[in-house]
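Internal tracking record. Fields below are filled automatically when a chain is submitted to the structure queue. Please do not edit lines marked as system-generated. If the sequence contains nonstandard residues, flag them in the REMARKS field before resubmitting.
Queue: standard
Priority: normal
Entity type: single polypeptide chain
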Amino acid sequence: MSSPQAWVAPTCTGLADLLAAGPPTLWDAPTLCAGWQVRHLVAHLTMAARLTPEQFGAEMAAARGDFGVLSDTVAQRDGGLPADDLLAALRSPRLHGWEPPGGGALGALSHAVIHSLDVTLALGRPSVAPDGALVAVLDGQIAADGAWFGTDLTGLRLEAADAGWSWGEGRTVRADAGALVSLLAGRTLPDGTVLPRT
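SYSTEM-GENERATED OUTPUT FOLLOWS
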């Protein structure tokens, strides 16, 4: 792949395909994001497919500059959209070409991969992100020294059991690449595994 951006579309469409093939009850299942069902998570992931920059600016102003408040407001509101609308947003070329301000192509890919894993890991399903995308996001998280989500990597060795990827020295944390991405993103896995925070 010439750019991480090229992995965004298959990640998002893979999640759409998984949800479209499942029972409607999947939309109400919990995710790794506390308090968010699948519908809320997808509504958050696909904001860029629905909101113009001007609309996003208005939402941010309404949230008084607090992105956390904006995210929860939009997720709760737009999570009530029909499933077909949310699936269409996941498949939207506008979403696939979006880059977060200051985040670039890797930021866009990380957004898609991490949030898709919030769904698939919680549901006990395989990752929908391409293997290369998972490794690219792992490399980005390590390059940031865990700072994206405040994880403390001191004294840890991370090993991807399914990707031949490893980093660090110390206490070994071995898991599939997708699970490592989620751990580095500050998530608690369904089995209770979590990385220390800074």
